[in-house]
Amino acid sequence: MESLPAVYMIFTLLNAFRRGLPRDRIWIEFRRQKIRLHPRLSFWLALCRSAHLITETDPWHIGHLRPLVTRFAPQWLQMSPEAQAFHLIEAWENAPKNPRERLFRKK
Question: Helices then strands (H, E): number in the chain?
Fold first, then answer.
């Protein structure tokens, strides 16, 4: 298994969600493509949420959150690699964790 750039990881996530793959089955997509998830899937999901690339909604109000690709995602994919990187860094700095970790990442 190999480790790939962040943009490829995010593209794979967005593609899987657009195809309707449930969140708990996402790791199968990465394994099928022989991609090593490092850092963990929870990191990539939090980063995508913070970057406004995905949102989690409950379409039937039964308590099951379903990740959906936002309208911003196609625009983000068309950005230059530098703009994508800066956007991801900013999203990572502002990702909700706890205040101490956010302050550490901003430094």
Answer: 6, 2
Q: Can you tell me the distance from the alpha carbon of 63 to that of 22, in angstroms, rounded to the nearest whole number?
A: 14
Identify whether the C-beta of residue 3 lies closer than 8 Å to the C-beta of residue 38: yes
Q: Are 52 and 68 in contact (CB under 8 A)?
A: no
Res 61 pLDDT > 70: no
Residue with tokens 């708990």: 24
Helix axis angle, 99-106 to 81-94, nearest 10°: 140
pLDDT in tens, 19-39: 888 877 888 888 888 888 778
Strand ranges (DSSP E) for 1-107? 54-57, 66-69
Q: What is the pTM of this model?
A: 0.76
